[in-house]
């Protein structure tokens, strides 16, 4: 086999090495799909079917248990949605949701989920009079679908309903695509879990027991405060307005905001898939060429892969990288709304301060390429580590291999009593009792356990050792002639 064939085989094994461990806690989920969207009439958009309304998207997630996972997805449609205000528009919802699988032993399975969604409608770049403006909204999302295994890949179909409360709108989406579950632990020669064996079964989830370091499927949920220093071109796409930067003349706390995070530790718990969002209202910077107006509403949504370097079992140094979306709302009359996508990097510390409670301190850099700008943020907050699954050690006693090591029946039986362990204080040889008549209440080893004397041969009413046990006197014998 030539070198190229070996390379292809190695890459294939790396990508699909997690198939055998599919749906195990901490397994990564990656997929792509095609999508058709039906927009609510509140958006005043033409919903007539044509191929210009077909979009594409992707999802990434991680399993918390074999039947539950968390996933994030984003999609994009630059179609012929005709809006009377914006003309042709782009539609790109982002969502995060908790998903459940209906248990099934077949290749096909049903699933459903619920979560939150951010929808946005933005004019096409060619529509110059309203370029940079648009609208967005937050709502809830419901998902129901099925997947079918195809030997390493899964064919997945979903029906999605996005409900926006203000203004009330219900958008419907149909998705179909492929997904797979790469096992990160196998990429680095690890077997996953804490027992070092993929053949051992999983113990039941203990959501708040004593935790010594993250486990596969452990959820990290937390909140933080944040201070952000904006780059020179932050929000420039919407006009000459700019959020205030941190300078000696500006108030530091004017750039203060808050946010939350949600992550899942993978099969190799040094890796974590984490998403976060932050929000703040920032004063506009004043000066020549800048537009005055109300505070700018700034928000971000980021998804990163974090690598955790252990310092102690409950303290880790964190390095992360991924993508970010930044949003700027300048107000209806002063620039409208704009957003951008870019790269996000993170360096931080997770310091364990109590069982399953940690202090998180992070520095975040968000870089937007168009227009080029770099926003820097400092964060501090608390994280809670919930759940995680451990491998179960199996019983090694011959004949009891089907039991777990913690099972009450997993013991080497006592040779004298098979219902107790050979290490039990009660595992002692049974006491033999005296077998002679009338002496059955004393042990056989007792000095009193001696056989009784035989009866006298001449008088059975007394024993042979009795002094009266003597032969009778001879009597006269008479002979007849």
Write the layout of secondary structure elements.
Blueprint: H1 3-16, E1 28-38, E2 54-65, E3 68-83, E4 87-91, E5 94-101, E6 108-123, E7 135-149, E8 154-165, E9 168-180, H2 184-187, E10 219-229, E11 256-265, E12 271-282, E13 296-312, E14 315-329, E15 337-354, E16 357-369, E17 372-386
Antiparallel strand pairs: 1-2, 1-9, 2-3, 3-4, 3-5, 4-6, 5-6, 6-7, 7-8, 8-9, 10-11, 10-17, 11-12, 12-13, 13-14, 14-15, 15-16, 16-17
From the structure above, extract its key features.
disordered N terminus; mainly beta; 481 residues; elongated; 46% strand; 2 helices; eight-stranded antiparallel β-barrel
Question: Your description of this structure?
Answer:
The chain is mainly β and 481 residues long. Helices cover 4% and strands 46% of the residues. It is built from two helices and 17 strands. The strands form two sheets. Strands 1, 2, 3, 4, 5, 6, 7, 8 and 9 form a nine-stranded antiparallel sheet that branches. It has an eight-stranded antiparallel beta barrel with strand order 10-11-12-13-14-15-16-17. The longest helix has 14 residues, at 3-16. The chain is elongated, with a radius of gyration of 39 Å. 33% of the residues are buried. The model is unreliable at 1-21, 128-132 and 191-198 (pLDDT under 50).
By DSSP (H or I, 4+ residues per run), the number of helices equals 2
Largest sheet: 9 strands, antiparallel
Structural class: mainly beta
Unreliable stretches: 1-21, 128-132, 191-198
Give the structure's gist in a few sentences:
With 481 residues, the protein is mainly beta. It is built from two helices and 17 strands.
């Amino acid at each position: 086999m030539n070198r190229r064939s070996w390379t292809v085989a190695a890459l294939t094994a790396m990508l699909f090495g997690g198939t055998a461990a599919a749906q195990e806690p901490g397994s990564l989920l990656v997929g792509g799909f095609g999508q058709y969207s039906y927009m609510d009439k509140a958006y005043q958009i033409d919903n007539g079917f044509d191929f210009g309304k077909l979009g594409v998207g992707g999802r990434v997630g991680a399993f918390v248990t074999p039947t539950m996972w968390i996933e994030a997805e984003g999609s994009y449609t630059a179609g012929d949605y005709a809006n009377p205000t914006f003309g042709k528009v782009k539609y790109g919802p982002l969502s995060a949701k908790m998903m459940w699988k209906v248990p099934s032993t077949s290749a096909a399975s049903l699933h459903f989920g619920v979560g939150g969604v951010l929808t946005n409608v933005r004019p096409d770049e060619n529509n110059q009079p309203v370029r940079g403006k648009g609208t967005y909204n937050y709502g809830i999302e419901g998902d129901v679908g099925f997947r079918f295994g195809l030997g390493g890949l899964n064919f997945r179909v979903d029906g999605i309903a996005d409900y926006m409360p203000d203004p009330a709108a219900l958008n419907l989406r149909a998705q179909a695509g492929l997904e797979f579950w790469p096992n990160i632990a196998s990429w680095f020669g690890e077997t996953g879990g804490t027992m070092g064996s993929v053949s051992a079964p999983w113990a039941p989830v203990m959501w708040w027991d004593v935790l010594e370091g993250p486990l596969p499927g452990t959820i990290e949920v937390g909140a933080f405060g944040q201070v952000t220093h904006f780059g020179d071109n932050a929000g420039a796409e919407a006009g000459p307005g700019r959020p205030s930067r941190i300078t000696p003349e500006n108030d530091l706390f004017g750039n203060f905001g808050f946010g939350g995070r949600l992550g899942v530790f993978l099969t190799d718990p040094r890796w974590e898939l984490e998403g976060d969002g932050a929000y703040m209202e920032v004063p506009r910077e004043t000066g020549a060429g800048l537009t005055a107006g109300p505070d700018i509403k700034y928000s971000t949504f980021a998804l990163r892969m974090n690598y955790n370097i252990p310092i102690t079992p409950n303290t880790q140094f964190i390095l992360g990288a991924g993508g970010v979306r930044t949003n700027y709302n300048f107000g209806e009359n002063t620039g409208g709304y704009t957003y951008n996508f870019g790269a996000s990097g993170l360096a931080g510390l997770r310091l364990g301060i109590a069982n399953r409670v940690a202090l998180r301190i992070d520095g975040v850099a968000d870089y937007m390429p168009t227009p080029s700008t770099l926003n820097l943020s400092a964060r501090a907050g608390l994280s809670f580590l919930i759940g995680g699954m451990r491998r179960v050690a199996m019983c090694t006693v011959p004949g009891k291999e089907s039991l777990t090591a913690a099972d009450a029946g997993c013991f080497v039986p006592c040779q004298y009593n098979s219902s107790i362990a050979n290490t039990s204080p009660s595992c002692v040889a049974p006491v033999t009792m005296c077998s002679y008549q009338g002496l059955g209440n004393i042990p056989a080893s007792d000095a009193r356990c001696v056989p009784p004397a035989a009866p006298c041969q001449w008088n059975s009413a007394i024993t042979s050792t009795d002094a009266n046990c003597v032969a009778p006197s001879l009597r006269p014998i008479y002979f007849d002639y």
